[in-house]
Each structure stands twice: as C-alpha cells, then as structure tokens.
C-alpha cells in the first residue's frame, strides 16, 4: 500500500502542474479526495493490512494528503491570479480594488445632522474625556446621585481637580450643554452635539461605547410645544410618516419638566417583541432646561428658557422602518456579512 500511495502522489503532482483553470483544479481535488476519490479508496484498504503496519501507513497517508492539498491550494491561487498564462497584456487595465462604504453608525450620524441642519441647528462636538463638573455638577446632579457610581460611569485614574472634580469618560452628550452656553456667551442657542459616550453596560440594547446626539435650544419664549414639534418633525423625516411617538413624564436632574420619548418598534410594528417588550422603544430623554443648569452656563433663567434632549444614535437607527435589527451589539460585531447589507 505504501507503493500505491507514493505512485498516486507522483501522478497527481504531474497532472496538477498541467492544469490551467480553476475548474480543472477543483475536478482533480474531487478525483482524489471526493467520496469515491482515488485517495479515499486507498484509505479504505487500511483495514486489510496487518495491524502492526497500520500506524506507519497512516502517518504516510496523512503526510501525502497534506502535501497534495497544499499543492492544489497553491495552484488555485496561481490560476486565480493568471500567473500561468504564457502571454501578458501589459496594456490591460488592472483589477480595481473593492470599494467600501461608511459604517452604518457614520451613515446615521450624517443623516441626523442633515435633518437638524434644515431647521437651523449647528453641529458641535465636545470632549470624550470630561470633568465631573461638566458631566454631573453643572447638570444639577448631586454628589450622591446613582449615575456617579462606578458601575454607571467610567472613571479615569488621574488626579482630580479641586474645582472640576474627577476625570471621566463622558457618560452622555449632556456634558456639552454648559460648554455650549460658555462658548456662545448668550442666546439664541440651537446646537446638535453628536459624540461617543461610555457606560459599563452590555446587553441586547446596550454597549459600553455608544453614540448620542444632544439637542439644545435656548432663547426667549421657548416652551414644551417647541420641544414636541421638533420630535414630530424628526420622527417623520427619519423614520417615516407611519411611525408614532409618545412623550412620557419622567425625571431628570437637568430638566424640569422632563419626558422620555418612545417610538413604535420598527421590528414588531408595535405588537411587542424581545427587543421592545411592549411595542414601544425608548429613544430619548428630554425636557425643559433646569434653571440651575442655565445658571451654571451663566444664562439668566428669568429671561431665557430652553429645551434639551439626548438620543442614542444606534438605538435610533435600529428603529428605522424595515431594518428588523433586534440586537444593538450586531452593529459592532464586525461581521462583514452583516455590514455589507448597509
């Protein structure tokens, strides 16, 4: 049997060297290793030889198989790259590389930006590494607030500042509110701040790093009707005319009154599923800017009012009509089969 294996290897290598097409190389592979291939048939004869010789023949068979598979794989690459052709046309155009596209989160950020720019919002960005003062204190959040615990916020191991407090990875884009007030100096303010945020959560609708877009409008006479009108406009532009939103009274330290905004689930169309549970998906925290926050930004709350909101970019995209993405973590899975669909 040793002789037969060696002869089969030599004959196969001679035949392989003559092949010029991918189809012929594949045919040779099946001829050798298919269900009724020559090599497969030889291996079936192992049980016919003395038991003492089987280990030696088995080692030889594995070595020959590995060698043939490597040679066949190499020949396939040569054939695919046209390296076996006897003639080369140097004037022929090269094969262009495949063009990629923006990640779906980047696409969403661009779309959101365009929608808000049409109604006068200006795009801003503020630091991802932030001080506690901008992330919490200036937003009317006391020292003992649960959001300031280390199981809700990433703290960076750096010396704290006497005025600004500890250094954190920005847990929300709301930290840009007072920064924008400081930058603008005085109203009117109409800002959209889109940036990365960080919280130690990981489940079907949360990832440790995510994106938010923060809206802030401050001027004379701003009220809840302006806030609701902005949401209605955005929902119709981004999700489509058939989707519905609702405002639920809630509590946030930096707005008063406060609301959470929900939209009918795009995955189950409001019937209820494992993602939304009851047909609605929470997208946004919002409300009228708290007077203490206006004071922190050196704006007189007796003259000016405003509203603010923070939306999750990934969660917003998941609710787009017809997508049926039921796990936020898919967006960061780096699975090319998933990403190429968008």
From TrEMBL:
Gene3D superfamilies (alphabetical): Bira Bifunctional Protein, Domain 2
Ranges of residues in domain Aminoacyl-transfer RNA synthetases class-II family profile: 102-319
Classification via InterPro entries: aa-tRNA-synth_II (IPR006195), aa-tRNA-synth_II/BPL/LPL (IPR045864), Phe-tRNA-synth_IIc_asu (IPR004529), Phe-tRNA_ligase_II_N (IPR004188), Phe_tRNA_ligase_alpha1_bac (IPR022911), Phenylalanyl-tRNA_Synthase (IPR002319), tRNA-bd_arm (IPR010978)
GO CC annotation terms, alphabetical: cytoplasm
Cofactors required: Mg(2+)
Pfam annotation, one family: tRNA-synt_2d
Keyword GTP-binding: no
Source superkingdom: Bacteria
Catalytic activity: tRNA(Phe) + L-phenylalanine + ATP = L-phenylalanyl-tRNA(Phe) + AMP + diphosphate + H(+)
CDD domains hit by this protein: PheRS_alpha_core
EC number(s) stated in the UniProt entry for this protein: 6.1.1.20
Annotated GO biological process: phenylalanyl-tRNA aminoacylation
Cofactor note: Binds 2 magnesium ions per tetramer.
Compartment list: Cytoplasm
One of the record's GO molecular function terms: tRNA binding
Coiled coil: none
Keywords: Aminoacyl-tRNA synthetase, ATP-binding, Cytoplasm, Ligase, Magnesium, Metal-binding, Nucleotide-binding, Protein biosynthesis
Ligand binding (Mg(2+)): 256
PROSITE patterns: AA_TRNA_LIGASE_II
Family membership: Belongs to the class-II aminoacyl-tRNA synthetase family. Phe-tRNA synthetase alpha subunit type 1 subfamily.
Complex formation: Tetramer of two alpha and two beta subunits.
HAMAP family, per database record: Phe_tRNA_synth_alpha1 (MF_00281)
Name of the featured protein: Phenylalanine--tRNA ligase alpha subunit
Species whose genome carries this gene: Candidatus Gottesmanbacteria bacterium RIFCSPHIGHO2_02_FULL_40_13
